[in-house]
Amino acid sequence: MVDEVRVIRLLRAASGALDGLRLEQGAGFDRRADAIWLPGVKYLFISVVEACIDGAQHICSSEAPTAPRDNGDAMRALGQRGILDPGTADRMRMAVGFRNVLVHEYVGVDDAIVLDRLADLSDLEEFIVQVSRWLSVPPETP
């Protein structure tokens, strides 16, 4: 059985990190010139995706017939169960890959990709909306 309180807590954590990313979307040159700005953005990405992963894994533990092979597979499973639409499930699998690059190959990260991802947060937003809808909980609005 899905622990709805746990999933809601994870969605709130994801939403909070996503709010931080939204604030940084419009950061001016002076802010972006700060040496800790880009590492902070990367950390927010890691935080939001990990909260989504934790939620997906928890849902899969009680809803999926078999355990996901990995975090990307958990997103695929949510798509197969109709919790996420197929497009969102695919984009979230890519977000999981992006998180893996940030965590495991931090030095080799192409900063231009991070900035491109910052410009479009719709996959992360849709994950929160769709999982909230599945739980029948109104998503927090920005």
UniProtKB/TrEMBL annotation:
GO terms for molecular function: hydrolase activity; RNA nuclease activity. Keywords: Hydrolase, Nuclease, Toxin-antitoxin system. GO terms for cellular component: toxin-antitoxin complex. Belongs to the HepT RNase toxin family. NCBIfam families: HepT_toxin. This is Unannotated protein.
